[in-house]
Amino acid sequence: MIQETEKSVTQPHAGADERVILCMKWGVKYGPEYVNRLYAMVTRHLHGPFRFICLTDRSEGVRAEVQCLPISDLALPEGIPERGWKKLTTFESSLHGLQGTALFLDLDVVIVDDIDCFFEQPGEFLIIHDWKRRWRITGNSSVYRFRLGAHADLLAEFRAKQADIRRNFRNEQAFLSDWLHRQGKLSYWPDAWCRSFKYHCIPHWPCNYWSAPIIPESARILIFHGEVNPPDALAGRRNRRFRYVQAAPWVSEHWTE
Fold first, then answer.
1. Tens digit of pLDDT for each residue in 81-92?
2. pTM of the prediction?
């Protein structure tokens, strides 16, 4: 059973101006060290008070400064492919009574510079724009920001039409991007802020064989999507043939408690 934990001095007075960092962990793919390191990176790179919430079904091993709360039930069918649908529960009309502005971060991101700007950028809903298919409205939901409770209709629509939505949209980020675009509320982060480790850090072929991955200029958060996670980047490990990558020891300077 998930227990709510007391917050550290990073918790401000609850209210409409509160800054909330949200992450989500379910199942066993990611251990508690991902939550703990994410908390540490946020602490180093976000100035001023904030509240750090992990929505999870397993709180064991998570550091005490992180408040663990249950993930709302979506009544998803058993055995369906994991497409991130549980993230849609962040749009509850009252998410455990939380108020303010929420910045959602995937567990496997690596923060390399200050992130205050992610709370300052204008827009009702901000998400990463697709790096390769710029013509699409679909965003990458590794990093998104919204007002807590502001988009409850999105979640209500999913619950009412779940089967149809899962047929028409490959994953949660495609659905939420489409829904918010139709509402006229979708905006994207400045391109330089969120960079893909796969696309922007690893040198292009054939330079990837003799040059190590880099941190792109002006990057603030690095996104590890696809086959490479932070431990793989540290070891120089990929699971695709002909896509060699050297080790990136600098990852350990950021992805650490």
1. 778 999 999 999
2. 0.92
